[in-house]
């Protein structure tokens, strides 16, 4: 029978209760935009500048609401395309990221 060490139990004491994240707010330290291969481009001719479905659905909170429409923070946008999929005006196109 494997020992507790062989099963990996030696690290159990290092995991927080309920596997919760004790470092709240730390996600801003992780620049998820580094992963991006596609970049959302907003067509402001089509955008309503007020529905902000893109803001609501962005899983990385990378879309900010401004009076001029959505502003996408590319430091955190990972290029998933959910905003483009959800936009009711088809105002967001995913473009290949240039290296
Ligand atoms: S969801 Fe589309 S139309 Fe609505 S604010 Fe965002 S880009 Fe504009
Ligand atoms: S592509 Fe994904 S991460 Fe980037 S703004 Fe749209 S929903 Fe957010």
What is the spatial order of strands in the main beta sheet? 1-4
Q: Which CATH architecture of the domain at 31-96 is right?
A: 2-Layer Sandwich
Q: What's the average pLDDT?
A: 89
Q: In this structure, how is the largest beta sheet organized?
A: 2 strands, antiparallel
Provide the CATH topology of the domain at 31-96: Alpha-Beta Plaits
Structural class per helix/strand content? alpha+beta
Rough outline: elongated
Q: What's the CATH first level of the domain at 31-96?
A: Alpha Beta
Q: How many alpha or pi helices?
A: 2
Beta fraction: 15-25%
CA distance, first residue to last residue: 52 Å
Range of helix content: 10-25%
Structure summarized in a few sentences:
The chain is of the alpha+beta class and 99 residues long. It has helices spanning 53-57, 82-86, and strands spanning 38-42, 63-66, 69-72, 92-96.
Structure in words:
The structure is a single chain. The protein has a domain at 31-96: 2-Layer Sandwich (Alpha-Beta Plaits), CATH 3.30.70.20. The chain is elongated. The termini are far apart. The chain is built from 2 helices and 4 strands, in the order βαββαβ. Helix content is 10%, strand content 18%. The model has no long low-confidence stretch (mean pLDDT 89). By secondary structure, the chain is an alpha+beta fold. It has helices spanning 53-57, 82-86; strands spanning 38-42, 63-66, 69-72, 92-96. It has a two-stranded antiparallel ribbon with strand order 1-4. A two-stranded antiparallel ribbon has the order 2-3. The longest helix has 5 residues, at 53-57. Strand 2 (63-66) and strand 3 (69-72) form a beta hairpin. One iron/sulfur cluster binds at residues 42, 47-48, 51-54, 69-70, 87, 89, 91-92.
